[in-house]
Amino acid sequence: MEAAHTLPVWAGKDKIVQRIRDNDTVILVGETGSGKTTQVPQFLLREGILPSEGQHMIGITQPRRVAATSLARRVASELGCADPATLKEKQEHDGLPEWVGYSVRFDDRTTRHTRIKFLTDGMLIREILGPLPRRRGKPERNFKETNEYSLKRYSVLIIDEAHERSLRTDMVLGLAKRIQRDRRNRIEAGEANVYPLKIVVMSATIDAERFAQFFSHGQPVPILYVAGRQHGVRLYHTEASCQDWTDAAVRTMMQIHVSKPLGDILVFATGQEEIEAMAQSLKLYAAQLDAWAEEQGRDSVPTLLIRPLYAALGPSASAAVFAPTPKHTRKVVLATNIAETSITIPGVRYVVDSGLVKEKVFSPQTHVETLQVLPVSQSSSLQRAGRAGREGPGECYRLYTREAFQELQLQPTSEIHRTELSGAALQLYAMGLDPFTFDWIEPPATSLLHEAVLQLAELGAVDSRKDTVQLTPLGQRLAALPVTPSYARLLLAAAERGPEVASQARDLVSILSADRGLFVDVADPEKREAAESARDQFVDTSGDHATLLNALRAYLLAQQHAFQSHSTPAAARQELKMWCQTHAIHERTVKNVLAIRKQLIRICLQHGIECADDATKSAAAPDDGESESDDDALIVTRYGASSTRDHEQSYADLLQCLGMGRLSHVALRQPDGSFRRIAGGQSFKLHPTCVLHPSRHGARGISSDSVQAIVFEELVMTSQTFARTVSKLEPVWLQALLAAS
Ligand code: CDP
Ligand code: MG
């Protein structure tokens, strides 16, 4: 392990600490990997910047959950503290201090001893939002009231990765500025026990002026630069643009592997599916390496270690990326843009850059947000290349031409200009703030905010008559639930139809909130056939929602069976693993879904959403995330037992709730068989993986005519636009929906 005190940021330690002591806000700019994120919080803790009385904390926000968890674990290990991933309230850790924790959605690893807290910006916003107001039916709340408890324990707030300008980071910037000023005012008014909020904005590229100006309340805000250590990186471009970049990436990696000196390879890919596909091909190649070397009369080729890195990986899988590479071995890290600036992987000498990134894009023309694969900006592309030159001279292989690079946009477009804003707007309204006048570092187009208000009005979250927007009591409840407003609406709608429907909705929201789909997208046609027939038993002819629920319930039964019929938990786990493989279900995703479900069980209880299986709540209390404890088995055992009772589940009520307040997710069949949203916009088809896809109607006894109206979860845009996760709506339900809106 590289000794921490040799990191470049150490050279500026005293100055950094002093500036933070002397100023309310400091901007810290430095090359990626210089030690800003891992070292600065430790400097501040060691130098005693926290007030001694009370339980004060240093908070560090991250745009991504993998960054928050892995950086927290790293800092904990450097400080000799308990590993936050194992932290549970009231548990002893061999006497290790519990100073470092993290909090990401559905996974809070902090205790009252936490002094350094890594959290996603989304979680920080939730903390500012606070719990539900005590008085029911009184949605209005002014910000001061919210602020009473907001961020009270934080003395220092480090807003990290600010250059990325994620929507949530932008919100945090505006909110933190407000809270900082509010605290100053209270201190000046002589209020006791109020401490200033120190803000440190950390950024990898040089847009520091903008942040400094934003935070200057008449006083200049100091900008500190950490000198980087960057070696030369040799750039290679392709001669012609490549048709299939994953294929080109795999070939480039193999080329590097057999011809270049040892040193790890970092590949910038778009998403987990592409990463998994590349990992598969790499494994195939790697298996043939020895035979190949022999045939060529060469010495044996180094071992190839394949390490994926993307959001849906649990803490332990992502930790494997940082493990030092063994001798005579080359590590290949297949990453999303998370490795661009948030996470620095030691040992990298070669970068292979797809030049692409997967992003959410909101189209004002279609009023729909889609996930799209788009070219990166020049600045991202330079950052990516830079990852090869941190420890010595490196090489970067761009899978695009020199001309293509020249044509890239200089800087990425901030998320706020390209995303759907209803969730953000709802949170601001719930804090008593107005998104139209909010102190944004870069305000969004008013049309995007109007669009957001329309969406919120559709959900019933706001009342927007006569030019004023009023949060409704329903809106306040939606904002308080830590899922997207539309899933929150589903939960509340289901709750009105009784505990059985509520528990179905809760489980469905758990599935839909996971980082990825439950079913493996099998590329190989033969294997796909096999996977599909194995999954046939889950199919509900209403569509994907009920089918997904059936699959989750079947897993729970399989789990119950496995733990009852095997004497050792290890054997039971092996059986479950096989079960997932047979049914082409992502086991890691199921575990993620169960962890979310456990949190949602708790959240539903807190919010008065009564579920049919609440009797099992005691088993759901502690959360142990991805750990494979038998505690998980316990709840599902009881759960499974209860679900055998009503074997034939009816999902009619749930399906009706799916469309409530979500007319923008409802579409009608067109004469040509495509679909079009009720609200208009472009037409689209069902994704081939949909249960309702016409190619499967025959096998499933679905008549195309019966699928006149659908509700869908998302649209994806590839060469065409497809709807994914789709269910059928009966015409009478549709009429009821239209009448209600
Ligand atoms: O924030 P900044 O990009 O300036 O650097 P950092 O994230 O604090 O990383 C400093 C060093 O810690 C780098 O050399 C990383 O490779 C290393 N690190 C690590 O080895 N394992 C982690 N889990 C996190 C960081
Ligand atoms: Mg950092």
UniProtKB/TrEMBL annotation:
A molecular-function term among this protein's GO annotations: ATP binding
Pfam families cross-referenced by the UniProt entry: DEAD, HA2_C, Helicase_C, OB_NTP_bind, WHD_HA2
Domain Helicase C-terminal: 252-432
Record keywords, A-Z: ATP-binding, Helicase, Hydrolase, Nucleotide-binding
Alphabetized CDD domains for the sequence: SF2_C_RHA
Domain Helicase ATP-binding: 17-224
Source species, domain of life: Eukaryota
Protein name from the UniProt record: RNA helicase
Organism: Malassezia caprae
